[in-house]
């Protein structure tokens, strides 16, 4: 048996739904192979068609464990077994003839796809490697380094997280001419409040009784250019949602989040799927520059761009850029969490604090911890 060298991080059974229609192109180029259009995550490398077995979709021996037989890699074989069930379940969704069992499978497949890509595995394994390093320094030797090596990949067959999102799962049918995009990290997972969701879900299908201070896990997974899986407990609807021409803005933002979530590459069933590619590319390159603060009060989740003035264990001073939302913050407001991000990475966090000072005109916010540390 040949070694299973080239391994898909996004499975071929999934990619096949995003293969471009080449019925017109093939008239002029009969040797062309149908494939998926691929671009960089900043949309600046041009859309190039690649067959679903092209090397851009694969990594050599990616899922192989150190103890594996190269001819029978454990993780790769497990994933292949799950993938064999995908097409028949997807077909039932396409025909709108699906039941709870199909949705249960898709919920599992969604979470499996979320944890099997390089973006997730590399990030989580890096955290475990640091734990191993600290533990080995404390105990001596390298037993924890050996114990936790490849721990994230080893848990892929064990972790069944589908039940976590299944109860809030729904299918979106995109009835417009603007297709869903996908990527090398196709499952979007965000913490959203109702205001966030207004951009991507019709307001009539949202639970407006929930304050903006509460965020919920939101999962979005395009299954085909016209069908997507979505799960969030803030969405109030039946098993399906139909997006028509009046929901074009929601489709744009869903695609925007898919692009933001990409690790290296964005995938599309059509060339140049977004008319504003050039402007969007510039925006994507600068999307994470600078600092911003997120503040959670009893009623709101507020987000302000700006910069940290100073920070210690007791106080956090942040100077905001002009923003009308500052009026929602009042002196003495209790804050459950304040978190500062720099270029998309969390750098400062403070829980259980209060607004000690706020200057709407200058943008200065001073937060004081409810539990003062001795200095």
General description of the model:
The protein has 375 residues and is an alpha+beta fold. Helix content is 29%, strand content 27%. It has 12 helices and 17 strands. The strands form 4 sheets. A 6-stranded antiparallel barrel has the order 12-13-14-17-16-15. A hairpin with a 3-residue loop joins strand 13 (301-311) and strand 14. Helix 4 (86-94) packs across helix 5. The model has no long low-confidence stretch (mean pLDDT 91). InterPro entries: DUF4238. This is DUF4238 domain-containing protein.
Write a concise keyword list for the protein shown above.
375 residues; alpha+beta; 6-stranded antiparallel β-barrel; 5-stranded mixed sheet; 17 strands; 29% helix; globular; DUF4238; DUF4238 domain-containing protein
Task: Write a brief structural summary.
With 375 residues, the protein is of the alpha+beta class.
* Radius of gyration from CA coordinates: 23 Å
Listing every helix as H and every strand as E from the N terminus to the C terminus, the arrangement reads EHHEEEHHHHHHHEEEHEEEHEHEEEEEE
- Structure summary, number of beta strands: 17
Proportion of residues in β-strands: 25-35%
Pfam family, one: DUF4238
Organism: bacterium 19PA01SH03
InterPro entries: DUF4238
Protein name: DUF4238 domain-containing protein
What's the SSE blueprint?
Blueprint: E1 6-8, H1 12-15, H2 25-28, E2 36-40, E3 48-50, E4 58-60, H3 74-83, H4 86-94, H5 100-116, H6 118-139, H7 143-148, H8 151-154, H9 162-166, E5 169-174, E6 182-183, E7 188-192, H10 194-197, E8 216-224, E9 227-231, E10 240-243, H11 248-261, E11 265-268, H12 277-286, E12 291-296, E13 301-311, E14 315-320, E15 334-342, E16 345-359, E17 364-369
Parallel strand pairs: 5-10
Antiparallel strand pairs: 1-4, 2-3, 2-11, 5-9, 6-11, 7-8, 8-9, 12-13, 12-15, 13-14, 14-17, 15-16, 16-17
Helix pairs in contact: 4-5
